[in-house]
Design a protein that fits this description.
By secondary structure, the protein is an alpha/beta fold. It has helices at about 1-10, 35-45, 85-90, and strands at about 15-20, 20-25, 30, 45-55, 65-70, 75-80, 95-100. Helices cover about 25% and strands about 30% of the residues.
Length: about 100
């Protein structure tokens, strides 16, 4: 955490690409372990735009450690295997979501 505190003072980015262990409309972005949570929170705070990269298996899952709400990210990029119903639910919730192979 001491390293993260020092990075926060000097780190900023226009765009940050971030992965996750899981995400859901109810719980947002979550991780199975706490070791990456601090870094991910810092990225979200210090980047102007955060793009979440999550394959279809991560959706509607909840892990034990909270990272952030989905409203704190700019968009989600996922793979073409994400079910249409899930894709539409996230869109209807106001989430900017892009499936690979589709026009944005």
């Amino acid at each position: 955490m001491a390293v993260l505190t020092n990075w926060k003072a000097i780190f900023s980015a226009d765009k940050a690409f971030m992965s996750c262990d899981s995400l859901s409309l109810e719980s947002g972005i979550t991780n199975a372990t706490m070791f990456e949570v601090g870094v991910k929170k810092m990225l979200i705070q210090r980047a102007r735009q955060v793009i979440l990269l999550a394959d279809h298996s991560k959706f509607d899952q909840i892990k034990s450690h909270s990272v952030a709400t989905l409203l704190s990210i700019s968009c989600i990029i996922t793979d073409a295997l994400l079910a249409e119903e899930t894709f539409q639910r996230y869109r209807q919730a106001g989430i900017n979501i892009i499936r690979a192979g589709e026009n944005a």
